[in-house]
Amino acid sequence: MSxxxxxxxxxxxxxxxxxxxxxxxxxxxxxxRLLSEEGIGSAPVVSGAxxxxxxxxxxxxxxxxxxxxxxxxxxxxx
Length: 78
Known about the structure:
- This protein is an alpha+beta fold.
- It has 4 helices and 2 strands; from the N terminus they run αααββα.
């Protein structure tokens, strides 16, 4: 298969399943556990109605923790 032909592959054929999702009410602990157990760096956040409302990544979590530390709401991370 040529590189050009490969780039035309539908995303649905590249997905590994089943898709791991978080809900808007998932706690930080639940999100970290899920991402760690699944060996993934991000997951879609899906409402009860099945709508994707966002994507939560490990980078998002790290940024949030750094912000909390900066505001003095977390204590020292390191």
